[in-house]
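#lab-general

N.A. 3:47 PM
ok so I finally got the sequence cleaned up, no stray characters, all 218 residues accounted for. can someone with queue access submit it? mine expired

B.Y. 3:52 PM
send it over

N.A. 3:53 PM
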Amino acid sequence: MSELRSAADTAYVTVKELIVSGELPGGELVSEGDIASRLEISRTPVREAFLRLQVEGWMRLYPKRGALVVPIAVGEAENVVDARRLVEAGSVRAFIEDARARESVVAALRENLRLQQQLAVDGTAAQFSDVDADFHRTVVRAGGNPLLDAFYDGLRERQRRMTAASVTRDPGQISRIVDDHRRLVELIEAGDADGFERAVETHMLGVHGLRSGRGETR
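B.Y. 4:20 PM
back already:
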């Protein structure tokens, strides 16, 4: 039983990562057999993984046909951006007056930026989206609110999926993201919480091809 559980967990983690990274795009139909062959396991743990992914909203199962990767829903990008802006801006306001905390956050973000710049040259969209998510999560964790931290972690995979899709469509987005992130670090270093909130919203809207005003796209 433990081996089956381990195989099911492996299948779950693998397939979810394929979806989040964009390797399995929304609208694609995936069979249990394809994943079982890829992982060299039986179909039973794959079926269990698919069921779990369906409950989480990543897949939709069709008997005898396979599992459909659920596309990013209409309005989902706007909802994720709204939630992220509120949490990130609130987190910055929570620590911005503490010079020592601000200095620590800036140092961590600049280290992350160095990795982003490296991946911009020789990384994949999936790798870059992972580090991008870490950049924003660093800001949230610095706010010191474990409830907001947990909530933000719940957005992480959707954020990664959206960013990976964006930079795959337009690789030039990566350099713009790095430039935006550099500006966000400068605003935190300057203690400008209002400027950060405006800049992070503009940044997220630009990355995901949205305009100010819900439901409008470029």
